[in-house]
Amino acid sequence: MADANLRVVWIYPDLLSTYGDQGNVLVVERRARQRGLEVQRMDVRSDQQLPTSGDIYLIGGGEDRPQRLAAERLYRDGGLNRAVANGAIVFSVCAGYQILGHEFVNDQGARQAGLGLLDVTSTRGTDQRCVGDVLGDMDSRLGLPQLTGFENHQGITHLGPTARPLAQVRLGQGNGTGDGTEGAWNDTVFGTYMHGPVLARNPQIADVLLKLALDVNALPNVDDRWYEALRGERITAATQPG
Ligand code: GLN
């Protein structure tokens, strides 16, 4: 694996980087380097064309207006759909997650087309905004420990038949439809409402992305004591009353 090269693409940091989700890129980069991989990181602004040669694409959350602009540009660009058709892995958060679905409701109250890379549709919730800590049990097929994160969204997301829930919530709202699901995934595309940033709080998810991108079943272990301490702290804070 020492000579392998991994191309990581951070989509539109100028529009969708308001919730600290850039941390997800740093975690993917770091965990790849710890495994001896050479990482080429590409930050692609919304006025640039999206490269289709990436191995892993990450897209973050954002406010309603930047979300609309990002969705318009990504739709026009078409590069992310081509990259996924070529086998790329995508990890998306909140606004980014909604953009990857079939459609979402934008800041002008209109239904806006997403990229259709995940079989999900988002609408605008009529209840209170979903804000707060989340804990959930990950889809057992992923073989991962409990999901922890922080949510902050008005949109709610309905899963279609070919999207699997990423987790079932024990605390918090997740997709917000009342069915207890959080996030969605298919074989190569992942979406979640979790900020935090989620890969710093759940680094094993980053390893899933790396394994898929490298097409390997296992990765060398790395020292996760720091991450485990952070996870423990957040889980305790989330479950403490008051
Ligand atoms: N604007 C979207 C919503 O409120 C996404 C918010 C976010 O990315 N945190 O649903």
Fold-level CATH name: Rossmann fold
What is the H/E string?
EHEEHHEHEEEEEEEEEEHHH
Shape: globular
Bound molecules: glutamine
Distance between the termini: 47 Å
Q: Strand pairing plus helix content: what structural class?
A: alpha/beta
- Biggest sheet, strands in spatial order? 2-1-3-4-14-13
**CATH homologous superfamily heading:** Class I glutamine amidotransferase (GATase) domain
Radius of gyration: 17 Å
Q: Supply the CATH class.
A: Alpha Beta
Uncertain spans, ≥5 residues at pLDDT below 50?
A: none
- As a percent range, the share of helical residues equals 25-40%
Residue fraction in strands: 25-35%
Continuous helix count: 7
What is the total tally of β strands? 14
Domain CobB/CobQ-like glutamine amidotransferase: 7-202
InterPro entries: Class_I_gatase-like, CobQ_GATase1, GATase_3, Lipid_II_synth_GatD
Keywords: Cell shape, Cell wall biogenesis/degradation, Glutamine amidotransferase, Hydrolase, Ligase, Peptidoglycan synthesis
EC number: 6.3.5.13, 3.5.1.2
Report on the architecture of this protein:
This protein has one domain: Rossmann fold (3-Layer(aba) Sandwich). A hairpin with a 5-residue loop joins strand 5 and strand 6. The mean pLDDT is 95. The protein is built from seven helices and 14 strands. The chain has helices spanning 22-34, 64-77, 79-85, 95-100, 198-201, 203-214, 225-239, and strands at residues 5-11, 38-44, 56-59, 89-93, 103-105, 111-113, 120-124, 130-138, 147-153, 155-159, 167-171, 181-182, 184-185, 189-192. The longest helix has 15 residues, at 225-239. With 242 residues, it is an alpha/beta fold. It binds glutamine (GLN). Substrate binds at residue 129. Pathway: Cell wall biogenesis; peptidoglycan biosynthesis. This is Lipid II isoglutaminyl synthase (glutamine-hydrolyzing) subunit GatD.
